[in-house]
Every structure is written in C-alpha cells, then in structure tokens.
Write a structure and sequence with these properties.
By secondary structure, the protein is mostly helical. It has 25 helices and 7 strands. Among the domains are: 148 residues, no CATH class; 133 residues, no CATH class; 66 residues, no CATH class. The strands form 3 sheets. The chain has a 3-stranded mixed sheet. α5 packs across α8, α16 packs across α19 and α22 packs across α25. The C terminus is likely disordered.
C-alpha cells in the first residue's frame, strides 16, 4: 500500500512540473506493449502465477546467466551470473568493442564482491535484507525498532547493520541477538517478529523452478495449491504465456485489484473510473457473485482509496468461456462497449478493437473530449498504420514546436489508454473475438499531443496526411467514432464520479474544483450544459443567489462570481433525478 501511495505522490509531482528520474511512473499500456514486442521478436517469456523473484533467480542459476532488473532483492540472491541493475545502464552511450560489436555500458553486481568489500559471510545476506526491510518484512511498519549503533541516514544505518552482523558466527546467533535489541517484546510479539523475519529470509532460497519445462516444450506449470479449483485448468497456458492479464489471478484468488497510477492533476478524477463498467463485466465473467464485489484500490485526489465494485452478472463464466461459440463472445464484447457491428463494418479488422474502445470512451469520458482531441487520436492511429508498412512516417513532427502541457488533454488521453487497456483485457478473456492490434503503432503520446497543438492552430487534419489512402482511412475511422456522441449535460461527470461510490449527488468536490479550473480558463458556463432546460435552470439559480440582499451586504464580501457559477453548474443534472 505504501508503494501505491508513493506512486500517487510522484505522479502528482510529475503532473505539476516535477521530474524525478526514479519516479517509476510507467505508461498504462507498457505491459501490453512489452509482451507484444517480445512476442514479435520471438523472445520467449513467461508471466508467473505468483511472486516472480525466486523463479527468476532459480532460472538464472540454472542457465548461469545474469538477472536484468531494478528489484533490490536480486542484490541478495547468490546468482552465479550476477545482477545487472537496469538503472545503471547507459542507454544513450552505445559503444563499439575492439571486435566491432555494439554494446551498452552498464554496471555488474556480484554477491561475492559485496561480501569481500564488507568482509561479511554470504549466509548473512538474507538476514541483513530482512532486518533492513524488504518486500516481505518491514520492521518499522510493524512498530519495531532495532537498536543498533549507527549514524544518521539510510546508508549509515545500513553500514551499522553490516558492521554489527560481522560480530556473529552464524545467522541464527545474530537473529537471537537482534530480537533482544528490539526493546523487551512480549512473547507473543517476539514470536510474530521471528515468524516475519524467518519468512523474509526464506524468500531468498532457490525453489525448484517450475518454468524450465515451459521454456523447453511449452508445458504450462501446475497452479499453486490455493489456486486449484478456483483458476480453471484451461487458463493456465494463456496466463503463463501472457495472453491473459495477471489481474485475473488477483480477482479470483484475492478479490482485489490495484489500479494503475498515471500522471494526472489531483483535481481530475482517476482515469480508471471511466472504464470501470468494462471491468465489472469482467468480474462477472470471472464468476464473482453480486454482493461479494471486488476491491479496487485507486487514486481519489491524492489519496489511495478502496472502492468496492460490484460485478455485472453474466450467463457465461470463465469455466466455459473457452468452449463458447465465437459469435456469442463477440456479442458480449460489443455489448459491453456499446458498439454495433454496423459501426465497425467500414473499419479494417486490425483497428476494430481500438475504434470500439474509442466509441466507449466518447460515451463515458469525464469530461467529454473536444473535437481536436478525437481527431488527433485518430490521426495517430492512421500514422501508425502507415509506419507499420513503410519506413517513411506519414506525419512529420516539427521539433521546434513544443506544446505546453494541457491537463484536459492529458486527462482525456489517460482515460482513453485505460479504456483501451481494459478493452484488450476483456477481449483476451473472451478468447479474442476481435483481432488484437499492434499497440505500439496505434498510440504515441508525444505525437497526439503535438497533433492537438497543430489542430488548435487551425490546421486541417486531412492536410497532415500525405497519402489519399491514409486520408480515406481517417475519414472512415472518424465516421465510425462520431456515431457515439457523449451523454448530455454534466450528468456524464457525476455518473463517472459516483460510479461505485454511494453518497449525495448535490455536491462533488472533485467536480467543482475541475469546473473552477475550466471557468478560469474562460469557458462560458452555459456551454458546459447541453440541454436548454438545464441552462434555464442554471440561469434561474444564478439570478436567485446574485440578488442584492441587505443581509448579505452586512455580512461582508460574498463569494467570487466564478465560485457561485461553479457550484450552481454542479446542480444542473439533479433536476432530472
């Protein structure tokens, strides 16, 4: 949970101009792109059923190769091939060896070098990691303090711990001494700490790897004992192959799913809210019963919040999905996204899924994206189609034009990426009724933001495309998505913000802060309301609150006009409830 909260904080810093190279905020589609890229390059890979560290370490020991990762746990595993931290690769410094081979400089770590430098025995490393705090045990979060003499700062504490460990002959002796330095624990508390530390140390042992057979002949490994009878047998192979999202295991085994964190401003609602109805269908297909729900951990402003999401009941569940007929599965997919066969009839087969996801996005986005944002997205898709077949780019970017960040545009594309990702996950669960597109060619954030900038300067979108075939494809995509117009009025905002969250609909803080932002940018408040009845109600409310009253004058200054306008705008959809 702490890691998720840190990511939210770092994402907010990035959104407001901060730039921490170690913030580890990755794009929403990065996992899908990585798996597709490895598949296209014919690089074998496996998606582990559970914690992957020990399986990776066992494979690396078996193959006598280094591990490439940023996970600090690999500093502790005794790997014969060593450890290559990703953060120490100099990606932009490609060099040539004497033999003429290209290479990327990096740093190589070996436990033997560490032990030699600090004069510590190898068998002490797991205890050192457990006492210092790792993924499995954190003494500070347990309210435990290890009273070892050291200076201030993380490195000083680490150095003090290593020096202290050198005084013992065995890890068991050091563990017993550590318990005595934790401040008079009760027997029960001491047993809890001992159990946690022991578990943390065992995680650095090498288990028999279950992946060797998979890499040898494609045989899926057995499920963990707790998953047997819950995860259907047919799903083992697509899960290990990465053709099903690992979120399925979280839903089936834990009943909870952490949502991705994107760079977005705090006053914007989480982009994950928009596609929640898609995930509700997935939860129903996975057999979650109405009333049990699934815990989604997601951003609410700058806080990490738990939302209980109810599944949408399905007549077909995961046990029989692989046996269902293709037309049935396709109908489930299209009905979930609210798209008809006719809408997609003029769209190439490899673009039907992203177009369907875009149609869904237009119906559920908060706020609805403007015309230029939609056009730029489709132009990016067309450019990607051309680039797949031709080394010459369809759209040339002028590097001298660097558009400023627009939070509205960023949020809109964040929502689209999540809608697209969840649509792909649904398509995978339904055994691919629609062709899965090549994601890396479809969306490039830098390009679409640049295109929004150009279009807002008055450039005709079709003039940005060089070939007539590309212009025709753009027209076909635009025709398809424009059949799905957003819902009327600010109800679209409240629907998304309230989805899965009980409470009054008269006031929503996230929405009013967003509206203040829009109004300060010069947007006419009446243009935010699409129905004439809503605009008239807004005028009536505004007239009432702005009437001069002696009582108001005696109390002093009234709220600023845009604050009143914002509050009244949020009341408009309530007239129909």
């Amino acid at each position: 949970m702490k890691n998720a909260e840190d990511k939210i904080r770092k994402a907010q810093m990035r959104a407001t101009g901060g730039n921490d190279s170690n913030d580890n905020i990755l794009p929403a589609l990065v996992k899908l792109v990585l798996k597709q890229t490895l598949t296209n390059l014919k690089v074998p890979f496996a998606q582990c059923f559970g914690e992957a560290d020990s399986q990776i370490a066992s494979l690396a020991r078996e193959w006598k190769c280094p591990v490439l990762s940023n996970d600090s746990d690999f500093y502790v595993f005794d790997l014969p091939g060593g450890f290559l931290p990703i953060s120490h690769f100099k990606w932009d410094a490609v060099s040539q060896s004497a033999a003429g081979q290209s290479y990327i400089p990096c740093k190589y770590y070996a436990t033997s070098s560490f032990c030699s430098h600090f004069n510590i025995k190898l068998q002490f490393l797991p205890l050192m990691a457990a006492l210092a705090g790792n993924d499995y045990v954190k003494l500070r979060e347990m309210g435990i303090s290890l009273r070892i003499s050291s200076g201030k700062g993380t490195m000083s504490r680490f150095d003090g711990l290593v020096r202290w460990l050198k005084n013992f002959q065995s890890p068991d002796d050091a563990l017993k001494a550590a318990l005595r330095l934790m401040g008079g624990l009760s027997r029960q508390r001491e047993a809890e700490v001992l159990k946690a530390l022991t578990l943390g140390m065992k995680e650095y042992q090498f288990p028999p790897t279950c992946l060797l057979l998979f890499f040898h002949d494609g045989t899926a490994p057995d499920l963990e004992p707790e998953a047997v009878g819950i995860v259907p047998d047919w799903a083992r192979l697509p899960l290990i192959q990465g053709r099903l999202t690992s979120d399925i295991l979280d839903v089936l085994l834990l009943g909870r799913v952490p949502q991705s964190c994107q760079v977005d401003h705090a006053y914007m609602p989480s982009a994950n809210i928009t596609s929640r109805p898609i995930r509700q269908v997935m939860y129903g297909l996975l057999g979650r019963k109405t009333g049990t729900g699934v815990e989604e951990w997601d951003r609410d402003g700058t806080r990490l919040s738990k939302i209980m999401v109810q599944p949408i009941k399905s007549k077909i569940t995961i046990d029989l999905l692989h046996q269902a007929e293709q037309p049935v599965l396709e109908r489930v997919f299209l009905e979930t996204l609210g798209v008809s066969h006719n809408t997609l009839s003029g769209v190439p087969s490899n673009l039907r899924l992203p177009v369907a996801a875009t149609c869904y996005w237009l119906q559920h986005s908060t706020p609805p994206p403007d015309e230029k944002v939609i056009q730029a997205l489709l132009l990016g898709m067309v450019a990607g189609q051309r680039l797949q077949r031709d080394v010459t780019g369809e759209i040339q970017m002028d590097i001298r034009e660097q558009p400023k960040q627009d939070f509205d545009v960023t949020h809109a594309y964040n929502e689209w990426q999540i809608c697209f990702k969840d649509s792909i996950h649904l398509n995978q669960l339904l055994c691919f009724p629609l062709q899965e597109p090549h994601i890396a060619w479809l969306y490039k954030g830098t390009l679409v933001h640049y295109l929004v900038h150009r279009l807002r300067k008055g450039v005709d979108p079709e003039l940005l495309l060089q070939k007539e075939t590309s212009r025709q494809l753009y027209k076909d995509l635009l025709t398809a998505v424009l059949q799905h117009q957003p819902k009327d009025d600010l109800a679209v905002h409240l629907d998304a913000l309230q989805l899965g969250r009980p409470g009054p609909r008269l006031y929503k803080g996230t929405l009013v802060h967003y509206l203040v932002h829009r109004l300060r940018k010069g947007v006419d408040p009446e243009l935010l309301l699409q129905k004439e009845t809503s605009r008239q109600l807004y005028k009536d409310l505004l007239t009432a609150v702005l009437q001069p009253q002696d009582e108001t004058r005696r109390r002093g200054a009234a709220p600023k006009r845009h604050q009143k306008m914002t509050l009244l705008s949020t009341w408009m959809p309530c007239s129909s409830w």
